Amino acid sequence: MRLRHIEVFHAIMQVGTISGAAQVLHISQPAVTKVLQHAELQLGMPLFERVRGKLYPKPEAHRLFAETEKLNRDLQGIRRLAASLKGRAVETVRLVSTPTIAISVLPQAMTVWRRDFPQARCELATHHTSEIVNALRLGEADLALSLQDPRHPGIVAEPIAHGNLTVMAPAGTWSVEELAKPFTADGLSGELIGLNDGDPLGEIVVAACEAQGVQPVYHTVVQTYQIARSLVEAGAGLAVLDPFTAASADPGRVQCRTWSPTMPVHLYLLSASHSPLSHGARELANCIGATARACLDKA
């Protein structure tokens, strides 16, 4: 099927009539009928049953619709991009981030970036790192943010900010003297909030504890760092987290200490090795890095 065939076919599948498809595509009804007839002729089979002016998809049409849906979305995206370029607008920047960075760093960074790119279109999404790698490789995202370097041959990982592994506890847990000292694994006692099995940061904490001969017991285990932060803020226990999540916590409700021995945690800018960043995407990355570093300095 040609691209025009697919476009007309999808319009008919969505609205169910020749007249409706013509309105959606801004072309005449005879033109829609002609394209559909040509597509069915090429395929060698009818795609719809005609009943009193309405078109009912055959099973083959449903299968074809499922297979061509992504191609149709890509075609619409190309047309939107062409329209924006014609109007001298900045192209769409598609950013994917792990949830903790999306909440702790992105809002302020986006505010700063918007001052120089007020008309730009930015699409934001959150995924875990393994899904982020797939999105970049498939061209579904332009750039991404993660606390992990996926070490994938098709992905460029650029560190743009870093802090240290941080222990966070409800306000009033530690004295002024204790706050001035780094935190060691043997201090993990009482109600502890752990990270889900398989979480990279959680595995680092487990390894660090084992190195000091400590085996902490977690009564509460969470899937995201933001949930752990919220629990600590509510007084539910102590958690070992990345510095960006810790820096985004309410300073009136928590206390923070650096883990000892010091363990750096990096924020990585990820991109596909075969796809260089546009000017708008690179400037957004610069704003994110500057915001992340300022967030840690303030904390």
UniProtKB/TrEMBL annotation:
Keywords: DNA-binding, Transcription, Transcription regulation
Protein's UniProt keywords contain Transcription regulation: yes
TM annotation in the entry: none
Record InterPro entries: LysR_HTH_N, LysR_subst-bd, WH-like_DNA-bd_sf, WH_DNA-bd_sf
PROSITE patterns: HTH_LYSR
Coiled-coil features, chain-numbered ranges: none
Residue ranges annotated for the HTH lysR-type domain, each copy included: 1-58
Key word Transcription regulation present: yes
Family: Belongs to the LysR transcriptional regulatory family.
Protein name: LysR family transcriptional regulator
